[in-house]
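From the shared-data thread, chain only:
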Amino acid sequence: MQSNMMNRRLFVTTTLAGVGLAALPVPALALSEASAVSLVNSVVDEINKVIASGKSENAMLRDFEKIFVRYADVPIMARYALGADARSASKAQLRQFTKAFQGYIARKYGRRFREFIGGEVNVKNARKIRAGYEVRSTVKLRGEAPFEVTFLVSDKSGKDKFFNMFIEGVNVLLTERTEIGAMLDARKGNLDRLIQDLPKAG
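Structure, as C-alpha coordinates:
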Protein backbone atom coordinates (compact mmCIF):
# COMPACT_ATOMS: atom_id res chain seq x y z
CA MET A 1 0.00 0.00 0.00
CA GLN A 2 2.72 2.40 0.98
CA SER A 3 4.59 1.49 -2.20
CA ASN A 4 1.46 2.20 -4.29
CA MET A 5 0.98 5.61 -2.60
CA MET A 6 4.59 6.51 -3.25
CA ASN A 7 4.24 5.45 -6.87
CA ARG A 8 1.07 7.56 -7.27
CA ARG A 9 2.79 10.58 -5.66
CA LEU A 10 5.77 10.12 -7.96
CA PHE A 11 3.46 9.87 -10.98
CA VAL A 12 1.48 13.01 -10.02
CA THR A 13 4.64 14.99 -9.22
CA THR A 14 6.31 13.97 -12.48
CA THR A 15 3.16 14.74 -14.49
CA LEU A 16 2.76 18.19 -12.91
CA ALA A 17 6.43 18.95 -13.46
CA GLY A 18 6.03 17.93 -17.08
CA VAL A 19 2.98 20.18 -17.48
CA GLY A 20 4.88 23.03 -15.82
CA LEU A 21 7.83 22.62 -18.18
CA ALA A 22 5.56 22.42 -21.20
CA ALA A 23 3.89 25.68 -20.14
CA LEU A 24 7.19 27.54 -19.99
CA PRO A 25 8.02 29.66 -23.04
CA VAL A 26 10.42 27.95 -25.42
CA PRO A 27 13.52 30.09 -26.00
CA ALA A 28 13.63 31.56 -29.49
CA LEU A 29 16.43 30.52 -31.79
CA ALA A 30 19.28 33.02 -31.81
CA LEU A 31 19.24 35.62 -34.57
CA SER A 32 21.21 34.47 -37.61
CA GLU A 33 22.17 36.10 -40.89
CA ALA A 34 19.49 34.04 -42.64
CA SER A 35 16.72 35.09 -40.21
CA ALA A 36 17.80 38.77 -40.39
CA VAL A 37 17.70 38.66 -44.19
CA SER A 38 14.35 36.84 -44.07
CA LEU A 39 12.89 39.58 -41.85
CA VAL A 40 14.06 42.35 -44.18
CA ASN A 41 12.82 40.41 -47.23
CA SER A 42 9.38 40.31 -45.57
CA VAL A 43 9.52 44.06 -44.85
CA VAL A 44 10.62 44.83 -48.42
CA ASP A 45 7.95 42.53 -49.94
CA GLU A 46 5.24 44.30 -47.95
CA ILE A 47 6.59 47.76 -48.83
CA ASN A 48 6.66 46.79 -52.52
CA LYS A 49 3.04 45.56 -52.29
CA VAL A 50 1.89 48.85 -50.75
CA ILE A 51 3.82 50.86 -53.36
CA ALA A 52 2.18 48.88 -56.18
CA SER A 53 -1.32 48.93 -54.62
CA GLY A 54 -2.46 52.18 -56.21
CA LYS A 55 -4.14 53.19 -52.93
CA SER A 56 -4.57 56.78 -51.77
CA GLU A 57 -1.78 58.39 -49.74
CA ASN A 58 -3.72 58.08 -46.47
CA ALA A 59 -4.46 54.38 -47.07
CA MET A 60 -0.79 53.76 -47.93
CA LEU A 61 0.37 55.52 -44.77
CA ARG A 62 -1.96 53.34 -42.67
CA ASP A 63 -0.45 50.28 -44.34
CA PHE A 64 3.09 51.54 -43.70
CA GLU A 65 2.24 51.99 -40.01
CA LYS A 66 1.07 48.36 -39.83
CA ILE A 67 4.35 47.22 -41.43
CA PHE A 68 6.32 49.35 -38.98
CA VAL A 69 4.48 47.94 -35.95
CA ARG A 70 4.81 44.34 -37.21
CA TYR A 71 8.52 44.38 -38.06
CA ALA A 72 10.16 47.21 -36.09
CA ASP A 73 11.18 47.26 -32.42
CA VAL A 74 8.98 50.30 -31.85
CA PRO A 75 9.43 50.61 -28.03
CA ILE A 76 13.25 50.58 -28.34
CA MET A 77 13.18 53.11 -31.19
CA ALA A 78 10.77 55.39 -29.30
CA ARG A 79 12.89 55.32 -26.12
CA TYR A 80 16.04 56.11 -28.10
CA ALA A 81 14.33 58.99 -29.94
CA LEU A 82 13.14 60.42 -26.61
CA GLY A 83 16.67 60.26 -25.20
CA ALA A 84 17.33 61.16 -21.57
CA ASP A 85 13.71 62.26 -21.11
CA ALA A 86 12.63 58.61 -21.39
CA ARG A 87 14.18 57.95 -17.95
CA SER A 88 11.98 60.52 -16.21
CA ALA A 89 8.79 59.65 -18.11
CA SER A 90 6.06 57.59 -16.43
CA LYS A 91 5.03 54.21 -17.84
CA ALA A 92 1.80 55.77 -19.11
CA GLN A 93 3.70 58.59 -20.83
CA LEU A 94 6.12 56.13 -22.45
CA ARG A 95 3.20 54.03 -23.70
CA GLN A 96 1.42 57.11 -25.11
CA PHE A 97 4.61 58.49 -26.64
CA THR A 98 5.41 55.12 -28.28
CA LYS A 99 1.94 55.03 -29.86
CA ALA A 100 2.25 58.62 -31.11
CA PHE A 101 5.83 57.99 -32.31
CA GLN A 102 4.86 54.97 -34.42
CA GLY A 103 2.26 57.02 -36.30
CA TYR A 104 4.68 59.91 -36.74
CA ILE A 105 7.44 57.66 -38.15
CA ALA A 106 5.00 55.82 -40.43
CA ARG A 107 3.72 59.09 -41.91
CA LYS A 108 7.14 60.67 -42.30
CA TYR A 109 8.96 57.72 -43.85
CA GLY A 110 5.85 56.27 -45.48
CA ARG A 111 5.70 59.40 -47.63
CA ARG A 112 9.33 58.78 -48.51
CA PHE A 113 8.59 55.17 -49.48
CA ARG A 114 5.60 56.36 -51.48
CA GLU A 115 8.10 58.18 -53.72
CA PHE A 116 9.30 54.72 -54.78
CA ILE A 117 6.14 54.15 -56.89
CA GLY A 118 7.23 52.63 -60.18
CA GLY A 119 10.48 51.39 -58.66
CA GLU A 120 11.53 48.42 -56.57
CA VAL A 121 13.44 47.58 -53.39
CA ASN A 122 15.78 44.55 -53.42
CA VAL A 123 17.68 43.00 -50.50
CA LYS A 124 21.38 42.67 -51.38
CA ASN A 125 23.53 41.40 -48.50
CA ALA A 126 24.01 41.23 -44.73
CA ARG A 127 26.86 41.42 -42.26
CA LYS A 128 27.20 40.81 -38.53
CA ILE A 129 27.43 43.86 -36.30
CA ARG A 130 27.68 44.13 -32.51
CA ALA A 131 23.94 44.64 -31.99
CA GLY A 132 22.82 42.01 -34.53
CA TYR A 133 22.91 42.23 -38.31
CA GLU A 134 23.05 44.99 -40.89
CA VAL A 135 21.00 44.15 -43.97
CA ARG A 136 21.43 46.27 -47.07
CA SER A 137 18.86 46.79 -49.77
CA THR A 138 18.93 48.77 -53.00
CA VAL A 139 16.16 51.04 -54.23
CA LYS A 140 15.84 51.39 -58.00
CA LEU A 141 13.70 54.24 -59.27
CA ARG A 142 12.87 55.12 -62.85
CA GLY A 143 15.34 57.60 -64.28
CA GLU A 144 17.36 57.86 -61.06
CA ALA A 145 20.55 56.30 -59.76
CA PRO A 146 19.95 53.40 -57.31
CA PHE A 147 20.49 54.15 -53.62
CA GLU A 148 20.75 52.12 -50.41
CA VAL A 149 18.29 51.57 -47.58
CA THR A 150 19.95 49.65 -44.73
CA PHE A 151 18.11 47.91 -41.89
CA LEU A 152 19.69 47.07 -38.52
CA VAL A 153 18.16 43.89 -37.10
CA SER A 154 18.29 42.53 -33.54
CA ASP A 155 16.47 39.95 -31.39
CA LYS A 156 16.97 41.81 -28.07
CA SER A 157 13.20 42.18 -27.64
CA GLY A 158 12.75 38.39 -27.87
CA LYS A 159 11.75 38.53 -31.55
CA ASP A 160 13.65 39.38 -34.72
CA LYS A 161 12.93 43.08 -35.37
CA PHE A 162 14.66 45.96 -37.11
CA PHE A 163 15.58 48.80 -34.77
CA ASN A 164 17.06 51.39 -37.13
CA MET A 165 17.28 52.32 -40.81
CA PHE A 166 19.76 54.25 -42.89
CA ILE A 167 18.22 55.89 -45.97
CA GLU A 168 20.88 57.07 -48.43
CA GLY A 169 23.35 56.93 -45.52
CA VAL A 170 21.18 59.03 -43.19
CA ASN A 171 20.72 57.46 -39.73
CA VAL A 172 16.96 57.55 -39.11
CA LEU A 173 17.11 57.06 -35.31
CA LEU A 174 19.80 59.70 -34.83
CA THR A 175 17.85 62.12 -37.02
CA GLU A 176 14.66 61.50 -35.05
CA ARG A 177 16.43 61.90 -31.71
CA THR A 178 17.48 65.38 -32.85
CA GLU A 179 14.01 66.17 -34.23
CA ILE A 180 12.13 64.91 -31.16
CA GLY A 181 14.58 66.75 -28.89
CA ALA A 182 13.95 70.00 -30.78
CA MET A 183 10.16 69.49 -30.57
CA LEU A 184 10.43 68.83 -26.83
CA ASP A 185 12.60 71.93 -26.32
CA ALA A 186 10.03 74.02 -28.21
CA ARG A 187 7.48 72.83 -25.63
CA LYS A 188 9.78 73.61 -22.70
CA GLY A 189 10.28 69.91 -21.96
CA ASN A 190 6.54 69.21 -21.60
CA LEU A 191 6.25 65.58 -22.77
CA ASP A 192 2.45 65.54 -22.52
CA ARG A 193 2.24 68.43 -24.99
CA LEU A 194 4.62 66.64 -27.35
CA ILE A 195 2.48 63.48 -27.16
CA GLN A 196 -0.58 65.59 -28.01
CA ASP A 197 1.13 67.34 -30.92
CA LEU A 198 3.03 64.41 -32.48
CA PRO A 199 -0.04 63.03 -34.35
CA LYS A 200 -0.06 66.28 -36.34
CA ALA A 201 3.65 66.09 -37.19
CA GLY A 202 5.50 64.01 -39.78
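Confidence is low (pLDDT under 50) at residues 1-28.
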